[in-house]
Fold:
Amino acid sequence: MARRAWRRRAASAAVAGALAAVAACASGPSAVPEGVPRPASFDAPRVAQGARLASLGNCASCHTAPAGRTYAGGRALQTPFGTIYGTNITPDRETGIGQWSQADFARAMREGVDRDGRNLYPVFPYDHFTILTDADIGALYAYLMTREPVRAATPPNALRFPYNLRPLIGVWKSRYLRTGPFRADPSQSAQWNRGAYLVRGLAHCGACHTPRNGLGAEQKDHDFAGGEAEGWHAPALNAESPSPVPWTAHALAAYLREGLAESHAMTAGPMTDVVHNLAGAPAEDVRAIATYVASLDTRPRAERERAQASALAAAGRAKAPDAAGDAGHAVYAGACAECHDLGRGVDGGALPLEFATGLTIPTPGNLIRIIRDGIVPGEGERGRWMPAYAGALSDAQLADLVAYLRSLTDRPAWSDVRAAVREVAKGGE
Amino acid sequence: MRRREFFQSGGALIVAFSLLPGALAQEGKKPPLPGSLKDSPLLDSWIRIGADGRVTVFTGKAELGQGIKTALIQLAAEELAVDPGVVAIVTADTATTPNEGYTAGSHSMQDSGTAIRNAAAQAREILIGIAAKRLGTAPGRLQARDGGVGAPDGGLITYGDLVAGEALHVSAQMQSKLTPPGRHAVIGKSTPRVDIPSKVTGGASYVHDLRPPGMAHARVVPPPAEGAKLVSADVAAAGRMPGVLKVVRDGSFLGVIAGREWQAIQAMRALALSAKWEEGKQLPKRDELYSALLGLKTQDTVIHGGATQPAFAGRTVEAEYRKPYQMHGAIGPSCAVARLEGGSVTVWTHSQGVYPLRNALAEMLKLPKESVHCIHLEGSGCYGHNGADDVAADAALLARALPGRPVRVQWMREHEHAGEPYGPAMVTSARASLDSAGRIAAWQYEVWSNTHSTRPGAAGNLAAAQRLATPFTPPPPRAIPQPEGGGDRNAIPLYRIPDARVVHHFIPEMPLRVSALRSLGAYMNVFSIESFMDELAKAAGADPVEFRLRHLEDARARDVIRAAAERFGWSSWRPQPGRGRGFAFARYKNLAAYCAVALAARVDRDSGRVHVERAVAATDSGEAVNPDGIRNQVEGGIVQSLSWTLFESVSFDRRRVTSRDWAGYPILRFPGVPDAVEVVVVDRPGEPFLGTGEAAQGPAAAALANAIADASGARIRELPLGAERVKAALEA
Amino acid sequence: MITLDINGRAREVDADPATPLLYVLRDQLAMNGARFGCGLGQCGACTVLIDGEAAFSCLTPVSVLAGRKVRTLEGLGTAESPGAVQRAFIEEQAAQCGYCIPGMILRAQALLERNPSPSDAEIREHMSPNLCRCGTHVRILRAVRRAAGAMKDGR
Structure:
């Protein structure tokens, strides 16, 4: 797969850049130590604005360990290069950012450099945050510096050579980091531009929804063509959108607010956190994001309407066994049909699967995870429930079911579903 | 002749004595016998001994999972000096046990326990008397032991050999010779629960497990919203589905009976899909619930204090508290089996009150009471009036359509969630002023609430009966009077306050269906009062524990408070950012068990999430019959209360309840369980039993709110204390 | 007719293949160990083990059980001779109404067979699909820890 390609390209980059690396390494520690304001000095409106921005940026998700204190870091992020741990961004003086000035913070956000002058791994999406305005950076700083300081040392990263050499990131940045402010498009509405600023900046949607190259950089000529996050496929948001019913701004806004939209699947995987945290963001910002994202699907209106009509028609049809035999259909009939054939309008009904993106994306992993682990709300939260079938179906039965569900679409069959099931099963309990 | 000798001297006198209560009854007075003996004075209503010496205890109370069977067996075993293992117990059965009304209000030990203990003690004395006659010796020289009466020479005449005919068919006396605490062999022991072994090994333990021969399976299709009328349903199509024996439609009551359970479920779904309903009643706007409630007409009663408001002066604190609808949410949805045979109906039910249910079913079916027989079998924990009675009515109606065959009705999860009567939403307000010494000088407390009981009794309170073509209408709701109270239960604080006034604003109109949920109004009133006590303590600059002691003279109350504080380490607490401690106390109904709770919790400012680290409770239940049983109930009460207090709120839109499964009504799961829960049982040998099952819920809720306030500075007065609300309070 | 392997015995049942295992166990085989709590995979009262993994029997159609081993509460032990986890629950008196307990026992069994020394956090996380309404959680956790100890000692 692409893994070997990464290694080859990375190795040659390392050789070429090794000598240049030292020279190209980021500038040293902050030359002028600025005073760090006391928490009480930040005015409440700025802190509140920072809170809203943090919701949009989904900061808590990467910077909080499971069952850990918010923003205290410790969450393991798996990358193709090894494991990186989200850092402690509470204002603790020893283990967090308690000694960081606003300028230090801005440098990290825009240039990917920490207070000691070290390069930050771009898993922290400063290539997106770089476009943030001064005001937004200031508000985020005010918010973070007024959080409860938590003493929690971030675990050391476990990255493979040569990715564990921070100076090499300087090479990466010289190639892939484009600093500079957001430029509005005057031909678009204010709402669209606001959405563009948020999506490209704080919300960093492309960090998951854009494919990356062997060095882990987003492929700018395939913007929003689909990517990957924590083992989940992040579907294309552009003209290649796999959603059987094309997204509209209205549906996207509902999805981002409620985790659910008519004729679309519920949030699952990493989007669950995103939507959960968006609850703290202003409604008009969520609508702006929805407007911008909807515009990424550049298919002509007629084409989108045809796709919608075809998906709706398919949902009404009865399900027959597929060409490959009865096995998958039998599992569907026994374990899934009771809810999924009813549709959402009825008590106990669920999304007709002809509308599910999980069936149309390039890989079966999302669907396998959803069936095995279900979709379960967080502690104390209501809504959205798909039961977990992990023990109920054997790996072989799950593979048959997944293959059958794919056959309901007009896409080519997934290759080696059984291996995909095994891989997901291994990763879990 | 002294009284005791009089009673022990011969059969004829026994007969004469047995006329005594009858004589009193003719005067219209119940003899003041202990506990439920006053309603069922015959000893053999409670205790029977077979020729084989086996003892059978009869109780009108029901096992709900609170361990009552075990505790009652212990009482009988103690007084009869037998091993608990030879004591069997028969619970709530309209054909065979006394009528003790509902197993509710934490009355079981006080009423049934007291009756059984006294009956057993008196039975023992009768048997000693018989043995004495037989041996020609004085009763004082004999002793009950090892299942018989022992003679000084070491000989033993077993109870089986002593008991004959109507020996125990006598009325109880006012006084009993109870085994003193110092000589207890069984009372005070944490005897293992008699029902647990079967429950953990798959034995038939619940009404859900009943499988009489020929049993058919049924399901009902309830209205999608309260009050909705059934316009049409494709009864014929459902009737043609595999295995369907009968489809029953009577007005808006719709049910289906099939040979197999899965067939019944399939047919139910088909019927539900085909059914067309008229709109039900409109519900209030969820985010205007409290103003809607406060806008309804009330019947106001001053339950404590005078006609005029107290005189407030000096430092005065005011607060209003709110609680939403909360549900029982029994883990096992309600179930019943019924059979109509030869004009008589037998119903196996987990209703808390088989006698009142019997009356309601008889009324609904238009049968004489003697033709309806209700037998209690366990359900899952019900925590009050849930769907148990309604499903019994469903079963009776369906059994009537299939005479001769037992019909089992199992409610689906959605039916239980959406159809059960809820704990009412409530609003309370408190106002008090402190004198210069930091004592409460004036106090006014008001509570607004619906009724907390719409139990059958009347057929009109059965959901199915309300849907029939000739419907039964619910009787007008009534308030349960003090000292028990309904919405005003525990509204009168135990604290000594010179000028206190408490007003109960009873709201008859019920926007959503409501009834008794464990502890009734006490949960909310104790939450409010004990939160308010902390607010007052803060205003007085006093420690919350010391502030409460300042106002309590009841020695037993002071003891549980000190015990909980000490075990918690209240005086050695070290504050840490994000951590808080809270304390609360109440005596359930000011009549039953005393319970104090101290609690430590962490609050995450950014998510609003609260995690309880440790809860410590001290409980005084009078004489502790089964200490572990008390601990189990208090631990459970605390954890259940934490779930209610942190998460629970029935959601609804203008048309119907939207909490239709656990996804729509989240509750506590294992990750949220406190790290430690400890219970100190303050035993009071010789004291009357005090009901414990509902004592911990209120104090736990207030202790939590107080801990959150201590941790974060935010005083939250609206339940539940969910993450969103806590976060918003912290940001305010 | 469908043949199921229940607690090591082949049981033949006449059932619609789409019938969830829960109803086949309870109605056709008259077994009480799996209980109906929701039918939606939300509460775990119906938990059984299938090939060693905890599963919701309310959602598992018997059609997927060919050649797979089902274990229920009855397969872990009897009242006279309870299994380690059952014994631990009895010793800790870890039940109030007891309705959720069979599901808890099966879920704990699945954990302990795979991880004989789970941490407290692991136990809580693993048990989280199962609901208890009476508040018996603290005792349940104690019982699982006790069972872990007993099973390690071979008791």
Summary: The first strand of chain C starts at residue 2 and ends at 6. The CA atoms of residues 20 and 113 of chain C lie 25 Å apart. Chain C touches chain B through 57 residues (CB under 8 Å). Chain C has two domains: 2-75, 84-152.
